[in-house]
Write a structure and sequence with these properties.
25% helix; alpha/beta; 183 residues
């Protein structure tokens, strides 16, 4: 993943937006990043979507990209999409070749996907980083390994970090553990 100060649009997991995402935005801000957390459920009055996904979350990510691109203080060529669990899968979909990306003129410069469901995803158009736990009981790391090992002719690089002993939601203090479900 190229160094530099990316601006980030953040996608939440299947249980919706909670305080942990605000903490991440605050941490990114303290590091000098511009971060925008998008609540895809709130205005739609949607509850939990675990196991169902939400196609609109990818569209919301592109709306955030368009919004950030219009800000004079933001370099539109340096905007990344960041997501967790279901949001990680949405981040992959946002940069996947032949996916929804062709419908939008703005493009993400990179994607960061925490513990996404990788099965069914293939070639990406932006450098992508996948972070997942080896003991993830919700989104198996094996699917991400298969994705990374498959041919990516003409696509961008995909980097995969598998954390030994880590479970789903490993980066959220209040959600970690072997029984944690998708967020």
């Amino acid at each position: 993943m190229a160094a530099g100060r990316f601006r980030r649009s953040s996608c939440h997991g299947c249980r919706g937006f909670f305080g942990g995402y605000a903490e991440i935005v605050d941490q990114l801000k303290s590091w000098g990043y511009v971060a925008l957390a998008v609540d895809s459920f709130g205005l739609r009055e949607i509850g939990e979507r675990c196991g169902n996904g939400l196609d609109e979350q990818v569209t919301d990510a592109y709306a955030a990209l368009e919004y950030l691109s219009g800000k004079p203080s933001v370099d539109a060529t340096q905007i990344a999409v960041l997501g967790y669990s279901m949001g990680g899968e949405s981040a992959l979909s946002a940069v996947e070749r032949g996916s929804i990306d062709r419908l939008f003129p703005e493009k993400f410069a990179a994607a960061i996907a925490y513990y996404p469901w990788c099965r069914g995803h293939s070639v990406v158009n932006a450098p992508t980083l996948i972070l997942i736990g080896a003991e993830d009981n919700h989104a198996p790391a094996a699917f991400c390994r298969e994705m990374v090992a498959s041919p990516h002719e003409g696509g961008a690089a995909i980097d995969l970090i598998v954390y030994p002993g880590a479970h789903h939601n490993f980066n959220f203090r209040v959600l970690t553990g072997p029984r944690s479900r998708g967020y």
